[in-house]
Amino acid sequence: MLECGATLLLRNYRRRCGELDLVACERGVLRIIEVRMRSDDRFGGGAASVDPGKRRRIVTTTRQLLQQRPELAKLPVRFDVAVVTPGLSRWQIEWIPHAFEAG
User: Fold this and answer.
1) Which of 24, 54, 63, 82 could be 6's S-S partner, Cβ–Cβ 3.0 to 4.6 Å?
2) d(C-alpha 35, C-alpha 1), whole Å
């Protein structure tokens, strides 16, 4: 189980077109979670690094997952981003729910 209360289904799901960092289910919603780690915000931070090309690869890889796992295809899909940055005593996690839509 993830800290957010979701049940983790897959980690590092890789296909030729891309990779899904985390795939989880929470209350009947399939959550695709892109994890971005940045030590500083000089180049826009972790959230800014999920550009249109990265989003396109995530969506394409998600479609492949749903073709392979028809039981997951029945669920609504949500795309989240978790930005991880080092803190003084522990890691800081900024959770961005509904970060983007499959367009």
Assistant:
1) 24
2) 16
Of 62, 61, 81, which Cα lies nearest the Cα of 73?
Answer: 62
Q: What is the dihedral of CA 27, 28, 34, 35, to 10 degrees?
A: 30
Domains of the chain: 7-100 (3.40.1350.10)
Round to whole Å and give the CA distance between 2 and 45: 23
d(CA 36, CA 84): 6
pTM of the predicted protein model? 0.85
CA 75 to chain centre: 16
pLDDT digits (tens, 9 = 90+) for 68-96: 999 999 999 999 999 888 877 888 888 89
pLDDT at residue 8 greater than cutoff 90? yes
